[in-house]
């Protein structure tokens, strides 16, 4: 009998947190604009052999899910992992893996690759006799590639703070088939490219972990979240829940999941529809003038960001960040991306080079930093 071919890109343990009985789940199907009650939970969010037939990535994700389930139980018991602890690191890696493993993320990666390759091939004389629009150029085992590509960047999250958002309202939080939302309220004035790279200034990461709670990572130099040093923030205003739910319906690929049969998912879908992304990625070319005898261009590619005009009453932009933005906007030329922590990015770049040389494992960033400290 073959090994399990159903690879869930949103794990069953996670979806059960939005289920009444652990076996079925309510959903809103976006393409059909249809509410479905008590859908089979096991039939949600999977594709056959999504991470490869050798099961290596699938097994690794299964181990990560087991760790995440334990962390979620700690959160349920009002014991969120302390920042900087090994459990906190495991939580970050799980959130990153969930972001990279979703069908939407992998489809966006394929879309970007297809556009880039066709743009490159379009400049080659050998391709002039082919109608490239009739072909789709895909990465082999894109699921495996996407997970590895994203998870190796976990060190770039180390300078983010996090809070557990506790829903104290009568309105439930919903989830989707693409539940990790990367957002950036702060740099919404920058319209070109993506502002939600893991190293971007003003980054925010949202993940609901039940109808009554969500995890929120954020740039602490830009945002003040809640009051005091507590790791939890009580959400008492339905408007905040509405805003968080809108993120989910706009980030979803096909399905949004909810627990209460009477939840007004139709109203949420109507509110979110104008904000849903019309495309998954953007690839643009800019002519260069290095060689006047040869046509060349610089190609820029990015995923499309979610933009819902997010406003959360418990999130405030710090005064220093507002002053920075005022000065930044006066510049004649803006960079394509604004880095949050240049030193951390340089450390991470050096670390990845050493990983490729076989001197460190991808999980050994802290050992790498210790070795640098010893050398100094």
End-to-end separation: 56 Å
What is the chains' assembly state? Answer: single chain
Please count the helical segments: 10
Strand order of the largest sheet: 7-8-9-5-11
Q: Give the biggest beta sheet.
A: 5 strands, mixed
**Computed CA radius of gyration, to the nearest angstrom:** 22 Å
Range of strand content: 15-25%
Structural class: alpha+beta
Report the helical percentage. 25-40%
SS elements, strand count: 15
Overall average pLDDT: 90
Shape estimate: globular
Instruction: Give me the strand/helix succession.
Output: EHEEEHHHHEEEEEEEHEHEEEHHH
Uncertain residue ranges: none
Sum this structure up briefly.
The protein has 376 residues and is of the alpha+beta class. 35% of the residues lie in helices and 19% in strands.
Features:
alpha+beta; 376 residues; globular; 19% strand; 4-stranded antiparallel β-sheet; 35% helix
Structural description of this entry:
The protein is an alpha+beta fold and 376 residues long. The protein is built from 10 helices and 15 strands. The strands form 5 sheets. Strands 7-8-9-5-11 form a 5-stranded mixed beta sheet, covered by helices on one side. Strand 8 and strand 9 form a beta hairpin. The termini are far apart. The model has no long low-confidence stretch (mean pLDDT 90).
């Amino acid at each position: 009998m073959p090994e399990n071919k159903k690879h869930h890109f949103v794990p069953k343990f996670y979806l059960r947190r939005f289920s009444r009985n652990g076996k079925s789940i309510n959903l809103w199907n976006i393409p059909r604009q249809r509410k479905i009650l008590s859908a089979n939970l096991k039939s949600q969010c999977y594709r056959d052999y999504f991470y490869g037939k050798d099961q290596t990535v699938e097994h690794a994700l299964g181990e990560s899910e087991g760790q995440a389930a334990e962390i979620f139980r700690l959160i349920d018991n009002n014991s969120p992992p302390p920042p900087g602890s090994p459990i906190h690191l495991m939580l970050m890696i799980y959130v990153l893996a969930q972001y990279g493993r979703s069908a939407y993320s992998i489809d966006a990666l394929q879309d970007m690759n297809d556009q880039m390759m066709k743009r490159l091939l379009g400049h080659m004389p050998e391709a002039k006799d082919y109608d490239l629009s009739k072909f789709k150029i895909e990465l082999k085992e894109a699921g495996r590639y996407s997970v590895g590509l994203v998870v190796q960047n976990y060190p770039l999250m180390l300078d983010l703070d996090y809070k557990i958002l506790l829903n104290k309202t009568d309105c439930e939080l919903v989830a989707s088939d693409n539940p990790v939302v990367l957002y950036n309220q702060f740099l919404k004035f920058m319209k070109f490219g993506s502002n939600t790279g893991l190293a971007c200034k003003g980054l925010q990461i949202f993940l609901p972990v039940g109808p009554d709670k969500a995890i929120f990572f954020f740039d602490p130099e830009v945002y003040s979240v809640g009051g005091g040093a507590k790791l939890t923030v009580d959400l008492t205003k339905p408007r905040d829940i509405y805003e968080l739910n809108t993120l989910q319906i706009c980030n979803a690929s096909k399905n949004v999941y909810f627990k209460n049969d009477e939840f007004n998912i139709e109203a949420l879908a109507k509110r979110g529809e104008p904000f849903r992304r019309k495309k998954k990625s953007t690839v643009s070319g800019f002519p260069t003038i290095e060689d006047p005898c040869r046509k060349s261009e610089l190609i820029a590619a990015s995923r499309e960001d979610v933009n819902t005009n997010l406003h959360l009453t418990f999130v405030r932009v710090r005064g220093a960040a507002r002053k920075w933005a005022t000065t930044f906007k006066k510049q004649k030329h803006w960079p394509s991306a604004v880095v949050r922590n240049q030193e951390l990015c340089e450390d991470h770049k050096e670390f990845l080079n050493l990983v490729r040389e076989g001197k460190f494992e991808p999980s050994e960033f802290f050992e790498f930093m210790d070795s640098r400290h010893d050398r100094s």
